Amino acid sequence: MWALLLFGLCWSQAPPAANLDTWTTLLYTNSQSFDPKVIHAETTDALRQDFQREKSIPPRPVERIFYEGLLNNDPRRMQTEEHLRDMDRLALFYWYHKLQDTQEVALPMRKLALAWVSTYWPDGNPINENKLVPLVYVYPLLSPHLNEEEDNRYRDFLSHLAQRVMNFPKTPMNNWETKRIHLLGVTGMVLGRGDYIDWAESRFRNYVDQCLFPDGTSSDIRQRDALSYHVSALKPLCQLLVYMEAKQSGRGAEWFFYTGDSGGSLQKSLKYVLPYAKGEAVYAQWNNSTVTLDKQRAEAGLAEYQPGVVYQADRAYDTMAMASLFDSSLGLTECQQIVCQVALQNPFR
Questions:
Q1: How far apart are alpha carbons 249 and 252 in whole angstroms?
Q2: Which of 57, 68, 164, 249 could connect to 122 by a Cys-Cys bridge, CB 3.0–4.6 Å?
Q3: How many CB atoms lie within 10 A of CB 228?
Q4: How many Cα neighbours within 13 Å face the side chain of 180?
Q5: How far apart are CA 59 and CA 67, in angstroms?
Q6: Handedness of CA 37, 347, 205, 202 (dihedral sign)
Q7: Paired strand residues for 284
Q8: Phi and psi at residue 219, in whole multiples of 5°?
Q9: pLDDT in tens, the chain (349 residues)
Q10: pTM of the full predicted structure?
Q11: How far apart are the first and last CA of the chain?
Q12: CA separation, residue 320 to residues 6, 90, 284 (Å)
C-alpha cells in the first residue's frame, strides 16, 4: 500500500524498492532526523493520495493480541495481524503530519491512536506488545492535539504498557529481551521517565554481556540456528540506539560499540550478518534448532521454517541501515530500499 509513497523521495533517478511497511520502518530508523526539504513532488503527491484513501477507515483496535506462540496460519494470529495494520496506518499518518498538513491529519491520527489506547489491555508479553511500539513513537507528535484528559489517558497507557512489559515473568534472554529493552527505553525518553531509561540501559548491558559472543553469534543463533532470529534480536537494539542518539549525540554510539564481559558487542553481531546481507554467503536455517515451536512450524508445512531454508538477504536491510548510521562499514550499497538510501545520506558519525 505505502510503497507508492516512495516515488521521488530524495532521488532524481528511479525510486528505490520498498516493502509495504517501509514507513513504519522509517518511523524507527530516521524519524528524529529526517529533513522534509529533500522530498520530491512525486512523493508528496503519492503520500497525499494514500492519506486520502486511508484517513476515513475506522480504527480496528482489539483488547488482546493473539500472536506469540501461534503458528503463522492460526486464524487467531491472522485476524490479529489484520487489526495490527492500524499500526502501519499510524506510521503513514505520522509521516503525513511531518511532511504535509498537520491540521488535516491530526484528527484521524488522534482517533486511531486513542482507539487503541482506550481499548487494548496490555498483558506484558514482549513479543505481542512490540507490535504497538508505533503508539509510543507518535505520542510526542500527537500530544499537542490532545486535551488534558486524553493526554493523561495516553500517558497512563504508555506507562502501564511499559510496566507490564518490564515485569513480565521469565522473559527468555533472546529477542524477547531486546524487544523489552527497546520499548522501555523509548517509552522512557518519550515520557521523561529516567527510571525506564536506566532499566533499559542496564538490561542492554546485561544482554550484551550474556547473549552476544566474540565471534558475532548470539543466543538466538545457538538456540534456533536461524539468522532471522539473530537479526530480529539485534533490530530492537538498533532502533533504541538510533532514537537515543538523535536525542543525545554520542549516547547511542556509546552503547553500539560497548563490549561485554564475554567479548561480544552489538557491532560484532551485526558484522556477523554483513556477508549474508550482502549476498556473499548463504545461511541455511533451522537445521539445528532446539525450539519446539520451530519444529511445529516445519511440521505444519510452513515453507519459511523448513530445515535448510535459505535466509533472504533483504530481511536484514533495515537493521543494517540503522547499524550503518553508527558504522559506515555496515552499509549496503546493494540495498535499493529507501531505508538504506536515507541512512546513507544521514549518518550520525
A1: 7
A2: 164
A3: 20
A4: 28
A5: 19
A6: negative
A7: 310
A8: -65, -30
A9: 333 233 334 433 433 333 335 556 666 665 555 566 655 666 677 778 888 888 999 999 999 999 999 999 999 999 999 999 999 899 889 888 887 878 899 999 999 999 999 999 999 999 999 999 999 999 999 999 999 999 999 999 999 999 999 999 989 999 999 999 999 999 999 999 999 999 999 999 999 999 999 999 999 999 999 999 999 999 999 999 999 998 888 999 999 999 999 999 999 999 999 999 999 999 999 999 999 999 999 999 999 999 999 999 999 998 998 999 899 999 888 777 767 766 766 666 6
A10: 0.90
A11: 33
A12: 20, 24, 20
C-alpha cell at 323: 547499524
158/151 Cα distance (integer angstroms): 11
Cβ atoms of residues 230 and 217 within 8 Å: yes
What is the C-alpha to C-alpha distance for residues 22 and 88, in angstroms, rounded to an integer?
A: 9
Cβ contacts of 107 within 8 Å, gap of 6 or more: none
